[in-house]
Amino acid sequence: MRVLVVEDEQLLADAVATGLRREAMAVDVVYDGEAAQERIDVNDYDVVVLDRDLPLVHGDDVCRGIVDRGLPTRVLMLTASGDVSDRVEGLEIGADDYLPKPFAFSELVARVRALGRRATSPLPPVLERAGIRLDPNRREVFRNGTQIQLAPKEFAVLEVLMRGEGTVVSAEQLLEKAWDENTDPFTNVVRVTVMTLRRKLGEPPVILTVPGAGYRI
């Protein structure tokens, strides 16, 4: 899942981003509305965690831009105000969900995951294919009933491949969905992660390489 965190309180923004990355999400961070608009113009995000009171460009305007362009991106709006009228106004602007500060991080994660499922084609909450069972909410993976421990990036890559439902997923698509914008696009991190993931999943191999195209399960 690709997430953009937009929050002018830099310590909070960085803490949220770090926590979401530990949940196997690819996360970019900006600290004002103008930078958010620039990122949204060039990257495809599943979810934007958007502070409402932003400098340069207000969060409301960032949200309106996403809605007016018809993007599939879902918006979780944050605000320091817990007033019902504030929440209603945010939802009327086009936000998909609303979370007042301060918030429990576990609730933020649950809401981001729920919105991420709505940003893509409907799929069952637990993904199953080729003897693999992947639960995105519990972050658990089983193969033929045996649990497999994966690092966050390995889990993220496997989830993207499972969501492909047998179609070929290119290295570029994996890089976009499982890593943030600071990753060198010419790095071999995708290939190395797939190799490690294959080894952990065991024999016979279930991740197939399609020469010149990518990977599929």
Automatic annotation (TrEMBL):
Superkingdom of this protein's organism: Bacteria
InterPro entries: CheY-like_superfamily, OmpR/PhoB-type_DNA-bd, Sig_transdc_resp-reg_receiver, WalR-like, WH-like_DNA-bd_sf
Keywords, comma-separated and alphabetical: DNA-binding, Phosphoprotein
Residue positions, PTM 4-aspartylphosphate: D51
GO BP annotation list: regulation of DNA-templated transcription
Residue span(s) of domain OmpR/PhoB-type: 124-217
GO CC field: cytosol; protein-DNA complex
Gene Ontology MF annotations: phosphorelay response regulator activity; transcription cis-regulatory region binding
Presence of keyword DNA-binding: yes
Domain Response regulatory: 2-116
Gene3D superfamilies tied to this protein: 3.40.50.2300, 6.10.250.690, Winged helix-like DNA-binding domain superfamily/Winged helix DNA-binding domain
DNA-binding region boundaries: 124-217
Keyword Phosphoprotein listed: yes
PANTHER family: REGULATOR OF RPOS, TRANSCRIPTIONAL REGULATORY PROTEIN CUTR
Name of protein: Transcriptional regulator
Organism: Streptomyces nanshensis
Organism classification: Bacteria, Bacillati, Actinomycetota, Actinomycetes, Kitasatosporales
